[in-house]
Amino acid sequence: MAVETSSDQDRPSQSSLRNQSGDAPISKNGLLPGERIVSELKSTNDSGFQLSHSRVIFRGGADSNAVYASAQLKDVSSVNISRRPRARRSAAWGVVGLFAAIGVWQVTPNTTVGVAAALLVALISLVLMGDYWIRPAGVHFELHTTGGGIIGGEVDGKVATAMEFAREVENTRRKLVPNRVSSPYRNYASG
Fold first, then answer.
1. Which pLDDT belongs to residue 104?
2. Which residues make Cβ contacts (< 8 Å) with residue 146, sequence separation at least 6?
3. Cα distance between residue 77 and residue 81, in whole Å
């Protein structure tokens, strides 16, 4: 069994060393040379998904756990779109706050202070309950990779826009030219 090895192939070329040292201009949008954006899906705040002809890029916003994530299209195994229900926590705290306002009003010995404190607590509770009814349900978009990684985030808008982006990801993945050889090493005859 013969194995082909070459130390020259593992070393970086001089052009890639120049690019790493800062001689070549780097794209402002973080794309690789020759890469172009096919589609975009805006997420909450300043984050979003970008689909290029070879990979999917996620840039997280201030409230996102992920700052940046990228996956090659050939590694994307599935797409998951789910609805995020409204945050019931704010409605629950609003109801608790209303009962607390009644308790504060009844327990306080001075009526003016008790009524003022009860009104303040009731106002905060109503704001929390209003937040529950006003805030729309969200859409969560996830890409699963063959290596087990997940790229996901909340997206603005409706399920229809997320579905359209998912179709574009799948269509672009379908248009990829398959690799001729699945492994980087060739098996040569030993004799």
1. 86
2. 75, 76, 77
3. 14
- Describe the chain by its helix, strand, coil percentages, rounded to 5: 40, 25, 35
3-state secondary structure of 60: coil
- Tokens 């001089």 belong to residue: 14
Which residues have CB under 8 Å from 176's CB, separation 6+?
54, 73, 74
CB count within 10 Å of CB 160 equals 9
Can you give the pTM of this predicted structure?
Answer: 0.57
Instruction: Say whether pLDDT at 100 is over 60.
Output: yes
| pLDDT tens readout for residues 26-37 | 455 667 777 788
Q: What is the DSSP string of 1-57?
A: -B----HHHHSPPHHHHHHHHT-SPPPTT-PPTT--EEEEEEBSTT-EEEEESSEEE
Look at residue 169 and give its three-state secondary structure. helix
- C-beta separation of 101 from 124 below 8 A: no
DSSP label at residue 117: H
Nearest to 97 by CA among 81, 118, 116, 112: 118
For the chain, give the percent of residues with pLDDT over 70.
72
Q: How many CB atoms lie within 10 A of CB 7?
A: 6
